[in-house]
Design brief:
The chain is of the alpha/beta class and 204 residues long. The chain is built from eight helices and nine strands. The chain starts with 7 loop residues before the first strand and ends with a helix. The chain binds guanosine-5'-monophosphate. Guanosine-5'-monophosphate binds next to β5, β6 and α4.
Length: 204
C-alpha cells in the first residue's frame, strides 16, 4: 500500500506571541512530528543551533538557492531572508512524516497555494492590550519604535482571515493543548487514507 502523505501544520503569529515556545512544547508532546528547519541569513542568536533552529547561511548562498528553485517559499523580513526547503518538505511528506513549520503569513500564503492540504494555524495573544504589553517588554524603545512594531504586528494579524484555526496564547500549556487538539482532530478525519483503511478492515 502506498504510504499516506504526511500532514503539515503551518503556525504563524506576530512577534511576542510565544510561538517558538509553543512549537517547542508541542514537539515534546508529539515527537513523531518533525520541525521543518528553515534557511535564514539572519545572524544566529545565543543558544540557537545550526540545523536545529535554522540553517544559517550567507546571503550569496541563499540567492543561489533561490535561483536553483530550492525554496517552496521565501521572504525578506526585516532585512533578512528566510526560506523553506522544498526538498525537506517533500522528503518528510513522502515518507508519511508529519511536519510543523513556523513561518510568517506571506510565506504561509505561498504554501497554501502550493499545498492546499496543509493546516494553517494562527496564534494570537489573549487580547490587544496583552499584545501591546508583550511587544513593549521586548525592548525599551521610544514611542515611534513601539508604534512601528505594533503596526507590523497588526499587518500580520489581518492575515488571520484565511487561516483554518486560531489559538489564543494566554497560558503556554493551554496553547500547546489546543494546538495538539487541532493536530489530533486532523489526524482523525474519516477521509484520511489511514483512517479509511482501518475502517475498511471492519467492513470487510
Ligand atoms: P526570527 O528571526 O525571530 O526567528 O523569525 C522572524 C519571523 O520569520 C518569524 O515570524 C518566523 O515565523 C518567520 N520565519 C522563520 N522561518 C521562515 C521561513 O522559512 N519562511 C518564512 N516565510 N518565514 C519564516
Amino acid at each position: 500500500m502506498k504510504t499516506e502523505e504526511g500532514l503539515f501544520i503551518v503556525v504563524s503569529a506576530p512577534s511576542g506571541t510565544g510561538k517558538t515556545s509553543i512549537c517547542r512544547e508541542f514537539l515534546k508532546v508529539y515527537p513523531n512530528v518533525k520541525f521543518s528547519v528553515s534557511y535564514t541569513t539572519r545572524p544566529r542568536r545565543p543558544g540557537e543551533v545550526h540545523g536545529e533552529d535554522y540553517f544559517f547561511i550567507s546571503r550569496e548562498s541563499f540567492k543561489e538557492r533561490i535561483a536553483q528553485g530550492e525554496f517552496a517559499e521565501w521572504v525578506e523580513n526585516y532585512g533578512h531572508l528566510y526560506g523553506t526547503s522544498r526538498k525537506t518538505m517533500k522528503d518528510f511528506l513522502d515518507k508519511g512524516a508529519d511536519i510543523i513549520l513556523d513561518i510568517e503569513p506571506r510565506g504561509a500564503k505561498t504554501l497554501k497555494q502550493s499545498y492546499p492540504r496543509g493546516i494553517f494555524v494562527f496564534i494570537l495573544p489573549p487580547s490587544i492590550s496583552e499584545l501591546k504589553a508583550r511587544l513593549s517588554k521586548r525592548g525599551a524603545e521610544d514611542d515611534a519604535a513601539m508604534k512601528k512594531r505594533l503596526e507590523a504586528a497588526m499587518d500580520e494579524i489581518r492575515e488571520v482571515a484565511w487561516y483554518d484555526y486560531v489559538v489564543f496564547n494566554d497560558k503556554l500549556g493551554r496553547a500547546v493543548y489546543y494546538l495538539g487538539a487541532i493536530y489530533v482532530a486532523e489526524k482523525s478525519r474519516r477521509e484520511r487514507p489511514a483512517v479509511l483503511s482501518k475502517i475498511s478492515d471492519f467492513l470487510r
